Amino acid sequence: MAVASPDTTARHLAIAEAGKVAALAGDHDTALRHYREALRMVMADRTPEVFFRHYTQCVLESLERSGSFPEVIEYCERADAHYCRFERLTAFQQRDHAAMLERLGCVLVKAGRTDDALTALHRALDIAGADALPLGRTLTGWLRRGLHVQTRRLTELQDRHHYFTVRPDLVDAEIATALPASLPHTR
After folding, report:
1. Quick one: which of 45, 93, 60 has its CA closest to 163?
2. DSSP letter for each residue of 99-149
3. What are 43-59's pLDDT values in tens digits?
4. Between helices 49-65 and 6-24, what is the axis angle to 10°?
5. E strand or H helix that includes residue 21
6. Measured distance CA(122)–CA(135) in Å, rounded
7. Residues with Cβ within 8 Å of residue 141, at least 6 apart in sequence
8. Rounded distance, CA 55 to CA 103, Å?
9. How far is residue 24's CA from residue 9's CA, in Å, rounded to a whole number?
10. Is 131 helix (H, G, I), strand (E, B) or coil?
11. What is the pLDDT of residue 115?
C-alpha cells in the first residue's frame, strides 16, 4: 500500500489550515472549499485516516456554524446507522459514535427538533457515560426541564466545553496556504 509523501501531507495540512483561518473569520464557504480539497487530497493519496476524520469534523463544524443543519443531521444519522451495524465496537468507535450522537443532538436543538435531540443525547450518554460528555449531560438536563435553548446559548455552551476543534488556540495561520482561485467553487 502506498503511503502519502511528506510533501503531500504538508500540502493538505496547509490547505486545511487556510480553511480554519477562513472559518475563524466567519467565511465558512471558503473554509468548506479548503476542507473539501484537503479531503480530496487525503483520499487520493491514501493518507492515514486520522486526517480524513479531522477534516470531516472541520466540514461538519463549518456547516453547523453556518446553519446548514440538514447536511449535518444527514451525516450524523448515516454515521449512527454505520455504527449500529456492528455487533461490538472498539473503545475508539464507541467514543466516536457517542460524539457523533452528541453533535446530532446539538444540531437537532438548533434545528428546533428538541424531542429528537433528547433521544440522540440520551443515546450518546448511554454509550459514552455522562462523565465523558459534560456538554451532552448539561444540554440533556436543560431539555428535560423543558427549557427553550436558544442557538446563541447552546453555542456558548459548546465553546465552553471545547466542542469545536477549530479554535484560535489550535490554528496555525503561518502554515496556511490558500487554494488557487481557479479551483471550482462548490459548497
Report:
1. 60
2. HHHHHHHHHHHHTT-HHHHHHHHHHHHHHH-GGG-HHHHHHHHHHHTT---
3. 998 888 899 999 999 99
4. 10
5. helix 6-24
6. 12
7. none
8. 15
9. 22
10. helix
11. 97
Which residues have CB under 8 Å from 53's CB, separation 6+? 96
Minimal CA–CA distance to 105: which of 80, 129, 85, 81?
Answer: 80
**What cell numbers appear for 138 in the block?**
448539561
CB atoms inside a 10 Å sphere around CB 12: 24
The domains of the chain are located at 1-66, 67-166
pLDDT of residue 47: 84
Q: Which amino acid, residue 152?
A: R
Give the DSSP letter of residue 66.
Answer: T
- pTM of the predicted model over 0.70: yes
Write out the E strands in 106-184: none
Q: Residue holding cell 444540531?
A: 107
| Category of 46 on φ-ψ map: left (φ > 0), alpha (ψ -120 to 50) or beta | left
Element of type H or E holding 39: helix 28-44
Phi, psi dihedral angles at 30 (to 5 degrees): -65, -40
Cα separation, 49 vs 120, in Å, equals: 26
